[in-house]
Write a structure and sequence with these properties.
The structure holds two protein chains of two kinds. Chain A contains nine helices and ten strands. In chain A, 34% of the residues lie in helices and 23% in strands. Classes of the chains: A alpha/beta, B alpha+beta. Chains A and B meet through α2, β6 and α4 of A and α9, α15 and α16 of B.
Chain lengths: 250, 605
């Protein structure tokens, strides 16, 4: 179980990205995080694996205080959290398989990994993960030779090879067309259903939220405006989350 | 309103123009610009002479042989018409004006088609075959000469006698001059000088560039406890590493009498070290190991490190012996023996340095980790006490070392003051720092390292290699090695700065993604940073190799070997034809380097 308690993040320069945010996520839950651009969704997800240092508040994951972990402890926590990004964040000049194997870096021996030596099981696992997302034939191509949808699949394979207990997906489909968006979301759904991995996914489109999420939380300028099932977002709630002038599309 | 602004504008512009004129006028005076001098006839004459010399580089020459160029002369003029032969204009020939004259009179001898610069005697040959000198000739740049000579006072003879010019002529195939030979030798030396400087500079610049990149260093933060322990750990580790090499050196010297023992020792120490490493380094770690296992692993690593150091020493000595043996046996490939020998010598020098650095890194890393854990476990008040002690001790140690360095440099001869006072000041400063910061605050240690690194690189880069070479000449003697070291030092600073700017401009996404997988900082650099910076690094290294070739052509001016030495020598000796050869060689090498490096850059980038 993930417990976020009174989480606040103030960036240098005084911008308050998160303001006293609290919620819990049950194991195996698919949680959507919605809100306008700049509402603090990315900051929230990055606080959970401490890519961004929270200013105040506490994050407990299965009883372990993530916010109090030191540098070597946070590495052990991070390797159990897979992360998927809007812009895929692949190393474009490296082969696909190396990008996937990067997901094992928290497990393998640091000294050997520097020389690009991975255990045989890891290489096999990487190929298996690529097969799972249907691009095993692209394994030895350079990452930037792949299309956007294929690159995001590599991103998912990289997260999955971590054998994660949680996936943080930061607008994973915002750079993709609607058809590809559903494909990628279905992979996340499968991971959530079959492997029982907790998924925290920030999304722009409400129809995707309705279709895939068990529960949604909404942020507006760092303040949590909503916590409940996606169906409960009616027109009134919608205006609260997205502002008075907003209109529903899709 | 508008008019007023335009008026002030005009005044400002006028003032600006006046200022610019003043600046340049002063510049003319300071740089002693003198256009009258450029038109002075004497100077122009010298200039033309030098330019002509430069246009005739002393590259090839011919063997020369004496040739007789002859023409008939009548003494006195014969009666009636005579059949005077037309000169053969295909080679050098003489024309007399007139071709007959009374004894003791003057005639003009003109020469054509001679080799410019040729000199020789003009002789009169009577029928007896004796040779009477009438004068001498000097050929001008167009291959001509004209001399007025007096005919000898002799009895009149009816038949033709001979005027002979003894000239020199090129014979056989052209061959390279000794100047061309030595220039070739030196230009090769120059290219390799630049190659070595670039290679060593690059190897050292790469790790430094990561430390001088803001985006990698700015989020490196550590509590005071960890920082103090890390500094102490580095110092202890450096001392331990250095001591270890000294004792292993002694052990090595015991074995050194017998080559077989050395080979055996080398194999044994490598095997032991590899086994120790293999055991200590497991491929995957699910959870952190227990304390006992951890201690055993550290012990194994220490054994492995000692094994490697001993192995390096043995290898160094073996290489030295092998090189020495080969150097006399390989004929034209003797240089390979020399290379092996020098590699051995270099290993001997570098090993203590590397061992000290490795020891510092390992002990520093371990203690810093320990500090991190300790900082997390201790209560706030306990942490404050430990912080105070550690910071004070660290401050005292650092300043005491600084004091010792000052003492060594200035030789005050007062060890108590130069040692104890800085130590006390350091103790107080460290203690004060620990009181200023909260017990568990994270200090921006990365930014501190970044700033120190940047300052250091800028300072080193600010001084030209031509100045460094003066220092290195004192250390290693006049020659290309001093030049290579000077260029390498400058290359390190310049490349590390250029590289670090490339690291700062990489896209941060992959960095974030790899960090999120739980990778360590070094893993993140290897997997997210390195692939992104390979093309610019190659490009900059090429560019630097280009610069180093150009730089190494003049590093010889200050005693750094290479072609600059010859060039300077010839300019000083006013031998401009020889200097022209060296300039030509530099131009060819720099131009082809430019071409090669741009071709390579296109391929890789």
């Amino acid at each position: 179980m993930l417990e976020v308690k009174n989480l606040t993040k103030i960036y240098e320069g005084g911008v308050k990205a998160l303001d006293n945010v609290s919620f819990t996520v049950e194991p195996g839950e698919f949680l959507a995080v919605i809100g306008l651009s700049g509402s603090g969704k990315s900051t929230l997800l990055r606080c959970i694996n401490r890519l961004v240092e929270p200013t105040e508040g506490q994050i407990l994951w299965d009883g372990v205080d993530v916010t109090a972990a030191n540098q070597s402890e946070i590495r052990l926590i991070r390797r159990k959290i897979g992360m998927v990004f809007q812009h895929f964040n692949l190393v474009s000049r490296s082969p696909v398989i190396t990008n996937v194997l990067a997901g094992r870096l928290g497990y393998v021996n640091p000294a050997l990994s520097i020389f690009n030596r991975f255990p045989k099981e890891d290489t096999e696992a990487a190929l298996r993960q690529l097969e799972r997302v249907g691009i095993q034939d692209q394994a030895y191509k350079r990452a930037d030779e792949l299309s956007g949808g294929q690159q995001q699949r590599v991103g998912i394979a990289r997260a999955m090879i971590q054998e994660p207990e949680m996936i943080l997906a930061d607008e994973p489909v915002a750079s993709l067309d609607p058809v590809l968006a559903h494909t990628i979301m279905q992979y996340l759904e499968t991971i959530n259903d079959e492997d029982g991995v907790m998924v925290l996914c920030s999304l722009h489109f409400l129809d995707l939220v309705h279709r895939y999420a068990d529960r949604a939380i909404a942020l507006n300028e760092g303040i949590m405006m909503f916590d409940g099932p996606p169906k409960a977002i009616d027109d009134e709630k919608f205006k609260e989350i997205y502002g008075k002038e907003a209109e529903r599309v899709g | 309103m508008k008019k007023k602004t335009s008026l002030t504008r005009s005044i400002l512009i006028g003032l600006g123009v006046a200022l610019v004129i003043i600046v340049y006028a002063y510049g003319f005076q300071v740089t002693k610009v003198n256009f009258e001098e450029t038109r002075s006839e004497k100077r122009l004459e010298q200039l033309i002479r030098i330019i002509r010399a430069l246009a005739h580089p002393d590259i090839i020459e011919f063997d020369q042989a004496e040739v007789f160029v002859e023409v008939p002369v009548y003494l006195p003029c014969p009666e009636g018409d005579i059949d005077y032969p037309e000169p053969d204009t295909s080679g050098p020939y003489l024309v007399l004006d007139p071709y007959c004259e009374n004894a003791g009179e003057f005639i003009v001898v003109r020469g054509e088609n001679f080799i410019p610069g040729n000199r020789g005697p003009l002789n009169f040959i009577p029928p007896s075959g004796a040779s009477l000198t009438m004068g001498s000739f000097e050929v001008d740049a167009e291959g001509r000469f004209e001399e007025r000579v007096q005919l000898p006072k002799r009895q009149p003879v009816a038949e033709a006698q001979i005027v002979r010019a003894i000239a020199r002529q090129n014979v056989g195939a052209p061959y390279f001059t000794s100047v061309a030979g030595s220039t070739f030798e030196k230009i090769i030396e120059t290219i390799f000088l630049a190659l070595l400087a670039t290679t060593f500079g690059t190897i050292i610049a790469i790790p430094l560039s990561f430390m001088a990149a803001r985006n990698l260093m700015s989020d490196v933060k550590s509590p005071l406890m960890s920082v103090s322990l890390m500094i102490l750990g580095w110092l202890i580790g450096i001392a331990l590493g250095y001591l270890a090499t000294r004792y292993l050196r002694l052990l090595n010297d015991l074995l050194a009498d017998n080559t077989l023992m050395m080979i055996g020792g080398l194999v044994l120490s490598v095997v032991v070290a590899l086994f120790a490493i293999r055991w200590a380094v497991s491929t995957e770690e699910e959870e952190g190991p227990g304390l006992g296992l951890r201690a055993a692993r550290i012990l194994a690593m220490v054994i492995a490190a000692l094994g490697f150091i001993l192995a390096t020493y043995l290898l160094a000595d073996l290489l030295y012996l092998l090189g020495d043996y080969l150097a006399g046996k390989l004929g034209p490939f003797d240089f390979i023996g020399y290379f092996i020998e020098q590699t051995g010598a270099a290993l001997n020098i570098v090993t203590p340095l590397l061992a000290a650095l490795a020891g510092g890194a390992v002990v520093g890393g371990m203690l810093s980790q320990f500090g991190l854990v300790l900082s997390g476990r201790l209560s706030s008040s306990a942490a404050k006490v430990v912080n105070f002690l550690l910071a004070a001790i660290t401050g005292a140690t650092l300043l005491a070392i600084f004091g010792a360095m000052v003492e060594w440099l200035y030789q005050f001869g007062n060890p108590v003051e130069t040692f104890l006072i800085p130590a006390a000041v350091g103790f107080v400063l460290g203690g004060l720092l620990s009181l200023r910061v909260g017990p568990k605050d994270l200090l921006p240690i990365g930014s501190v390292i970044y700033t120190i690194m940047r300052t250091l690189l800028n300072a080193i880069r600010a001084i030209e290699p031509l100045i460094y070479v003066i220092i290195f000449v004192v250390w290693v003697g006049i020659g290309p090695f001093a030049g290579a070291l000077a260029l390498a030092l400058h290359t390190i600073a310049a490349l590390a700065k250029l590289y670090s700017e490339q690291v700062e401009s990489i896209s941060s996404g992959p960095l974030e993604a790899v960090t999120a997988t739980g990778a360590t900082r070094i893993q993140t650099i290897v997997y997210a940073v390195v692939p992104q910076i390979v093309p610019p690094y190659i490009s900059f290294t090429m560019y630097r190799w280009d610069i180093n070739v150009r730089m190494s052509t003049i590093i010889g001016f200050a005693g750094g070997g290479g072609i600059g030495f010859l060039l300077q020598q010839n300019i000083r000796l006013l031998d401009y034809r020889a200097a022209a050869v060296q300039m030509l060689a530099i131009a060819i090498v720099v131009a082809s380097m430019d071409y090669i490096s741009s071709a390579l850059r296109k391929r890789f980038v």
